[in-house]
């Protein structure tokens, strides 16, 4: 009988009523995510400013801007670091335990946030090089936060509301982006009041006050604050029971740790821990047989989603300029531009990004992960095609509000859909000793997609006519065709979702087959993935 083989400590965690420690866990893990999002997205608020400060060309009609290769490096180097961090810390989290590694990633984030704002030198190349160096290692730390936060939350949660808890940690990302935008608005506004400057077309040199150089540094460095604040709490958090009992094989310690957390008595049951005879590894046939398709499902869906999700950054500035939220660069001074960009991004985040995340938190344990992911990919496909096919219609001035509404809906359904579920599911369906590794692999596939989305489309979306493309870029296939490609990518995501099993309302051990004595714990889970909707 399954129940007989299940450790009491897991049972206690699975059926625990939602209580205070659940919320402290959400906040401790969530603040890491808040910082991740702040750090990853705040760079896009200041890239225009960096161009004006360091790449000013005397006598040019429009303000200086980062050359394509520099722009790609500054924006993308953190992604490369994140990808490496997800794989490395994911593996380390299964080797050394979640808690040990959790403090390391946080320290790395704090140090690199501060260092990336200290790129001292007046030579543009040196500033960009040091900035990129520290952004890479900042990304490396952020990467570790993905698998660890998800795994810790899933191993602490009860089975009834586990989805909502993991999604709530992820939803802190929305607040991080929001926090970055609001902070940039406050700083740029404060500097504008203190240091008056004419627009670029009136006085090209005077439009960028020397003090503007502090603005981007302050914005980048403040990312260290929320992480530093939660460091102490992270150190106090006990190792998760699932790791202690199933991986470190110390059921007694697990019981005593969770007795403190749950504030109830849990007896240690040393004899039951020998349950798993077969300890198959990540590259074994056994893993391929049980979880091969699951891992394929979680990696491909996350990869495809992030291509679409991160390509938004490209269209964002074009869209803002098109709607007239952001006037043309030469009519503003440097600080005003930061202010306007931050304001536009914050509005979009408030209207579509943040609500989407919390819709997922509210419905994930009611509708299930599978249904939300399918629905999200479906609507993203529909809206991408609806933007692409009549694209010429949307460009007209009268229709641009409609364009923004459609565009916002696409990203609402990314967040109330695959953006959240691809993060939740890998933390639930793999065995404890491979859980953080598999989550790291899935997340790294996502970051690969993010790079394709952010850079591939930067080149793809350029005008077909080289003369009309942005300075320094080759001709592309145009925005319309790029949107069609994105629609097809979302449709593929819809199809690959069918590989992923539903984990709603099941215990972690039930999903991974870890509470069975024999090696066949899972036939049920994989074959009936669609029977429970």
TrEMBL record:
MF terms (GO), sorted A to Z: phosphate transmembrane transporter activity; symporter activity
PROSITE patterns: MFS (PS50850)
Broad class of where this protein is predominantly found: membrane
Keyword Transport annotated: yes
Keywords: Membrane, Phosphate transport, Symport, Transmembrane, Transmembrane helix, Transport
GO BP terms in the entry: phosphate ion transport
Bilayer topology annotation: Multi-pass membrane protein
Segments of skewed composition (Low complexity): 514-533
Pfam families: Sugar_tr
Family (UniProt): Belongs to the major facilitator superfamily. Phosphate:H(+) symporter (TC 2.A.1.9) family.
Name of the protein: Major facilitator superfamily (MFS) profile domain-containing protein
Species for this entry: Gossypium mustelinum (Cotton)
Lineage: Eukaryota, Viridiplantae, Streptophyta, Embryophyta, Tracheophyta
